[in-house]
């Protein structure tokens, strides 16, 4: 009977698998002819076996991990569009900010709290004016940093709401800003574009206005003199003529500007998309339905687009 050769083990080969053992099923690359296992270097065997072990481990972990019920996501409050002015969107946050900034407007004193609809109307007019400024001469209307600083100092020193909180001091000014949820940067931007609009109005409308001497005298006799009572020291016409001329000039500028702005609003594309603001108080033309968004286009209310 022939002697069997001793089985040798190599550091580079896996142990020989007897032919009676079935072929592994982890990978077809293990099977040779007739479904018999083939010998594979130890390193290759480990590389082939490793992905299968990882997959099996993942399945076992997922089977033992308890399932968690998905919690409904908390609702997120997003900013919303209220109106569109020639493709410029006015947001609800813009209206809130306009109301907060109204405390800096001396003209607002005595008129009560600025309502959201009035704030929207101001924002619509301002958007139209700013768009027109960009078309004409934005650089000429831009205020200097010194003009902005001077206006800010005047507000901190003279605005009644600021005087009450001693805004002339840094501590008082910080307290005022905090009380009205404002920042120095936002106040600076607000004063900058207000001065820009005022300068634009002066440059565009004032040069062509001439005040006749008879208009000054008429104002003096019909408007100024009745303000004085018996025994009051009444100023002579020559002394107050420059001031009267300035008042009449501003009145004409305001009248021309109002007419110009009204025409721009009629010619422009203004649409109020929030039904809560779609009323005569928000824009000049009425909505076509009780809940329809409001729009002015060429002076006609057409409702929602």
Please give the structural blueprint.
Elements: H1 42-64, E1 81-85, E2 88-91, H2 92-101, H3 116-136, H4 138-141, H5 145-158, H6 160-164, H7 170-179, H8 184-205, H9 213-224, H10 237-267, E3 269-272, E4 294-297, E5 300-301
Helix pairs in contact: 2-3, 5-8, 9-10
Task: Name its key features.
305 residues; alpha+beta; 3 domains; 5 strands; globular; disordered C terminus
Describe, in plain words, how this protein is organized in 3D:
- With 305 residues, the chain is α+β, with helices and mostly antiparallel strands.
- It contains ten helices and five strands; from the N terminus they run αββαααααααααβββ.
- It has three domains: 80-136 and 268-305, no CATH class; 139-205, no CATH class; 206-226 and 234-267.
- Helix content is 50%, strand content 6%.
- A hairpin with a 2-residue loop joins β1 (81-85) and β2 (88-91).
């Amino acid at each position: 009977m022939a002697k069997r050769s001793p089985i040798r083990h190599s550091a580079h080969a896996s142990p020989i698998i007897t032919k009676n053992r079935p072929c592994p099923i982890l990978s077809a690359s293990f099977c040779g002819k007739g479904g018999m296992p083939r010998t594979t270097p130890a390193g290759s065997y480990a590389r082939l076996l490793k992905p299968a072990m990882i997959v099996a481990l993942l399945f076992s972990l997922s089977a033992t991990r308890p399932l968690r019920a998905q919690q409904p996501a908390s609702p997120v409050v997003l900013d919303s569009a209220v109106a569109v002015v020639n493709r410029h969107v006015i947001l609800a946050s813009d209206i809130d900010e306009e109301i907060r900034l109204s405390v800096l407007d001396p003209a607002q004193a005595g008129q009560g709290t600025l309502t959201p609809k009035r704030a929207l109307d101001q924002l619509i007019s301002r958007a139209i004016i700013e768009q027109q400024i960009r078309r004409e001469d934005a650089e000429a209307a831009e205020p200097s940093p010194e003009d902005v600083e001077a206006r800010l100092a005047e507000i901190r020193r003279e605005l009644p709401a600021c005087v009450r909180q001693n805004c002339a001091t840094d501590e008082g000014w910080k307290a005022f800003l905090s009380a009205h949820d404002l920042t120095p940067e936002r106040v600076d931007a607000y004063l900058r574009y207000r001065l820009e609009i005022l300068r634009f109005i002066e440059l565009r409308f004032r040069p062509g206005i001439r005040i006749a001497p008879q208009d000054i005298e008429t104002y003096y006799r019909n408007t100024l003199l009745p303000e004085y009572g018996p025994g009051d020291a009444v100023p002579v016409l020559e002394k107050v003529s420059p001031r009267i001329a300035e008042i009449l000039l501003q009145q004409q500028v305001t009248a021309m500007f109002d007419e110009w702005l009204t025409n721009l609003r009629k010619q422009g594309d203004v649409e109020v998309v929030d039904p809560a603001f779609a009323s005569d108080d928000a824009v000049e033309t009425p909505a076509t339905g009780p809940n329809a968004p409001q729009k002015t286009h060429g002076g006609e209310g057409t409702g929602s687009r």
